[in-house]
Amino acid sequence: MKCGQIEGKDIYLRPMTGEDTEDIIRWRNKEMVFRNFIYQKPFTRKGHENWIKTMIDTGKAVQFIICEKAGTRPVGSVYLRDIDRTHNKAEYGIFIGEEDALGKGYGTQAALMMIKYAFEEAGLHKLMLRVLAENDRAVRSYEKAGFVKEAYLRDEVFLEGRYKDVIYMAVLREDEKLQ
What we know:
- The chain is of the alpha+beta class and 179 residues long.
- The protein has a domain at 6-127: Aminopeptidase (3-Layer(aba) Sandwich).
- It contains 5 helices and 8 strands, in the order E-E-H-H-H-E-E-E-H-E-H-E-E.
- Strand 3 (62-68) and strand 4 (74-84) form a beta hairpin.
- Helix 4 (106-121) packs across helix 5 (136-145).
């Protein structure tokens, strides 16, 4: 699935390239990022290159870099993974890797842009995501973008020496917030 740049209010999304590898590795290994991921093992160049080969190059995922419009600085990444063409759905993911870019609404803007991309460009019917229940900031951002809670899974993952709850959220093509 080839894609071009997507323009937003304060940010734009550009397709990820191999040249973004160092930033992605740096961001994903920051505590403020990895502590909010279900997958918390150290992120490596080999792992990222494998992601590109097995997911991006095969069309099972599409990934963008979030850039500030003012100055064009990359600040994070957003992606659709496990794109399922049988059921027209995918899993949504995002991370903001620059601390000074947090709290500016970039995550909500990126989510809205990706929802529009997923439904209008990629022809998907549903986007879902998994979020640690304790990540209130992310849950609020997802809700602002139109995702709704579909399931609350207690003690779903074992991280940092304890079990944690996970919320499944989703947005459908016909949800009225998108009309």
